[in-house]
Amino acid sequence: MSVYLDCNATTPIESDVLDIVMRYLGEEYGNAGSRTHEFGVRAKQAVERAREQVAAVVGVRADDVIFTSGATESNNIALLGLAAHPDNASRRHFVSTTIEHKAVLEPLEELRKHGVEVTLIRADRSGRIDPQAVLDAIRPDTLLVSVMHANNETGIVQPIEAIAEGLPDEVWFHVDAAQTFGKVIAPLQHARVDLISVSAHKVYGPKGIGALISRRRAGKRAPLAPLMFGGGQERGLRPGTQPVHLIAGFGTAAELALRDHARRHATCLRFRDEVLTAMAQLGGQINGDQEHCLPHVLNVSLPGLNSEAAMVTLKGVLALSNGSACTSTSYEPSHVLVAMGLDPDRIDSALRLSWCHLTPEVDWQRVCAALRRMM
């Protein structure tokens, strides 16, 4: 049985979360929009409780949480919805980075087709964005700055607090926090981070549910136009019947993440030491500045070994990846590693290992022996 080391793609679900999902799927199956009977009342109470649990992680009010299907939809609402709102018609410039997830880069490309100017800031070989470069790109007509909190391929954490503190009041700030919600706490509680996109399945919750968090600033939220219509749920920004079982599961996952953050962090750091020791035996080249890396992610290149061949060799031993799960059907080089300026051979041999507090022990000697035979 393979040991699962692809937690940046999706995490295992916590047992307490699964219990809640099954309860609201099989027993408490009411529609949260049904106000005429106790089944609907209890469903609505579960949704609002989950809203409070998610809000607590980033220090906002419960009604700042808009449930979506996940961070991809949240990113689309934040970017496309902001550009489409009539209040923003005169400001047609967005600033982002070259290492964003495709769920940000592709909506930005769509906005380009409709006359929005987009400035993308490049990362250096460390995988980090210079916050001053972001701030220097802001113009009088800049509407939004969008910077991911941590990169999904390298685990490198971006300086969102430094960016937040330097932004003009009139510019909205969006952070794709799919990889850090419930894992890196303080930066996402910064009062100047206006919009936050999250997915439950990256934080030991169910797939198919996430949130766009829209924090008030000076009593105002970023003005967003809906992308869909019908029903009016989630302040009209995400109409449709609320999946109570998924929302309740997300809420429990958020509560556990906040409660157990320190313990999970320490467990991941101990596992990281073992990974680094094993990769050093193979002459691995670590991609990205490890002083600014999540404790549960490592992007490493193994000289002379193609990443696809490595994954085939380790089949049945380790389940890992060589990039984003959302582009796994593409054989193009990682746009993140290309943007960092790595040479083609190093990109071709890059592997992403990502683990969590639920990951079992790995026989690293067996892993190293198998890979050496291929080198």
CATH topology annotation of the largest domain: Aspartate Aminotransferase, domain 2
As a percent range, the share of helical residues equals 25-40%
Q: What profile does the largest beta sheet have? A: 7 strands, mixed
In angstroms, what separates the terminal alpha carbons?
24 Å
CATH superfamily of the largest domain: Type I PLP-dependent aspartate aminotransferase-like (Major domain)
The computed structural class is alpha/beta
Roughly how many Å is the radius of gyration? 21 Å
Strand order in space, largest sheet: 2-8-7-6-5-3-4
Number of helices: 12
Outline type: globular
Question: What is the compact description of this entry?
Answer:
The protein is of the alpha/beta class. 36% of the residues lie in helices and 13% in strands.
Q: Would you write up a description of this structure?
A:
The chain is of the alpha/beta class. The chain has 2 domains: 3-10 and 262-372, Aspartate Aminotransferase, domain 1; 15-259, Type I PLP-dependent aspartate aminotransferase-like (Major domain) (Aspartate Aminotransferase, domain 2, 3-Layer(aba) Sandwich). It is 36% helix and 13% strand. It contains 12 helices and 12 strands. It has helices at residues 15-26, 38-58, 71-84, 102-112, 131-136, 160-166, 244-259, 261-281, 307-313, 335-339, 344-348, 364-372; strands spanning 3-4, 65-68, 93-97, 117-121, 142-146, 172-176, 195-199, 210-214, 285-286, 297-301, 318-319, 350-354. The chain has a 7-stranded mixed β-sheet, sandwiched between helices. Strand 5, helix 6 (160-166) and strand 6 form a beta-alpha-beta unit. Helix 2 runs parallel beside helix 7 and helix 3 (71-84) packs parallel to helix 4 (102-112). The two termini are 24 Å apart.
